Amino acid sequence: MKLYIIASLLSLLVAAPVHDIPMGIFSLTFEGEQIQMDIKLEVEDIEKAVGLYYQQKSNDRLVEQYVLKHTEWYINDAQLIPELCSTDKIEGHYLLKMNFIAPSMPLTSMTIENKCLLQEVKNHSNIIYIHQNGQRRGFRLHKERQQTTFELQ
């Protein structure tokens, strides 16, 4: 009888639906005057968004343009312009690497506006990780909260 109960419980776990949470990961690492950003987006989601936005089939260049058009980055109210380093498509994800050059003044605050995939993918969130001075902080941006401002350390 115990074996039957255990087998029944295991079958429920196996048959339980998997809930995929749509999200993009934007990880910024501060290293001196340079800020490196690694972006991870689901291929299916970004290709859908690019197709809707540009009305054509997705490719690496359109993915890069879409990300650049749907994000803005500011330090001390000065806009940062990202330099694209690489774009790869690996295991169902687009991986983009970008760099920013931080202003030479003391870094006191950062503002991030991120609208990537928020209109095109239902319940999408963008998770922003900030790695600075050996610490990591995270922010969740979504359809109702597309911008955040915070103090830098």
Could you list some keywords that capture this structure?
single chain, 153 residues, alpha+beta, six-stranded mixed sheet, four-stranded antiparallel sheet, 3 helices, 24% helix, 46% strand
Please, could you describe this protein's structure?
- With 153 residues, the protein is of the alpha+beta class.
- It has one domain (21-151).
- Helices cover 24% and strands 46% of the residues.
- It has helices at 2-15, 43-54, 60-69; strands spanning 23-31, 34-42, 71-75, 78-80, 83-90, 93-101, 109-114, 125-132, 135-142, 147-151.
- Strands 5-6-2-1-8-9 form a 6-stranded mixed beta sheet.
- The chain is globular, with a radius of gyration of 19 Å.
- The N and C termini lie far apart (60 Å).
- The model is unreliable at 12-19 (pLDDT under 50).
Order of helices and strands: HEEHHEEEEEEEE
In the sheet with the most strands, the strands line up as 5-6-2-1-8-9
> Runs with pLDDT <50, length 5+?
12-19
Q: Enumerate how many helices there are, as a single number.
A: 3
Radius of gyration: 19 Å
Mean pLDDT across all residues, rounded?
87
Q: What sort of overall outline do the alpha carbons produce when their principal axes are compared?
A: globular
